[in-house]
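As promised in the previous annual report, we have extended the structural survey to additional targets. Below is the entry for Amidohydrolase-related domain-containing protein.
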Amino acid sequence: MIKKVSLHIYNAQILDVFNQKFEKTELWIDKNLIYYRGKSNELKAEKEFDAKGQYIIPGLIDAHLHIESSLLAPSELAKLELKHGVTRIFADPHEIGSVAGVSGLFYMIEEARNTPLHIHYMLPSSVPAAPFEHAGAVLAADALKPFYGFPEVNGLAEVMDFPAVENGDPDMLEKIRDAQAAGKHADGHGAGLSREQLAVYRSVGIDTDHEATSGKEALQRIQSGMKVFIRQGTVEQDERAILPVVRKNNQSYFSFCTDDKSAIDIEKEGSIDHNINLAIKEGIPSERAFTMASYNAAQAPAFRKCRCFS
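The corresponding structure token record, generated without further manual editing, is:
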């Protein structure tokens, strides 16, 4: 029996992220999902498209960023991201949460619904950022917990208050437990932490980090069982320092993020596509760089626990 699908793309070079190679093959797409890859006599498409040898890769993913750093609303930033091949981002609305509290979080969620870019939020873990700071709002565990009912919310963002975790602060531990109880994930923020301190994070279930600034720190995180988001933004630019330790046998632990990047820099040099271009220039095979920017990021805990196809 012949099955009808929506679209047939042929004569294309398609990235096989599982074997990390480009393959001249075909794609059969039905209802916006890839139904089959390869030649088939049992499928018929409503629309045929000759790719004429062009390359097809998965959508790029920014594993961690702050939309507020772009000085744009979510839907406006999305216009830039989509131009650069980014189809999904994981954002921490820490800045607006610090000023506007829960109303700021509601705004970011609602406004992000105005774009086809998939915008997922990780709830800000430390508002205020330090006990002596007050920018206008306080977000304790009981204020954050209801937000796990939103499909756009995928967990707790970068837990930056390491002393609170180490000292067993009740509110911080409750935030982490609430995320996990909702089937979500808590991201790490291990700036300057030793392997012993990273173990404290791991003991509460935190296994991602974007604060590695050197190859040595990146390897320490991998040895601790953590995924590493290689950061290349406007201020923090760690990629060149980390890439030398990315090897074929450990590359699955690495993906890319921008963290804080201005709209001007995104327009000028790119978003995650800039991370890819830099990686290729530094000697990372293109197939590996594209895989890190897509499939690897999709294997990070926050993505795996999202309702991405609901």
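Residues 145 and 270 are 35 Å apart (CA to CA). Residues 60-304 form a domain with the TIM Barrel fold (CATH 3.20.20.140). These points will be discussed at the next consortium meeting with the crystallography subgroup.
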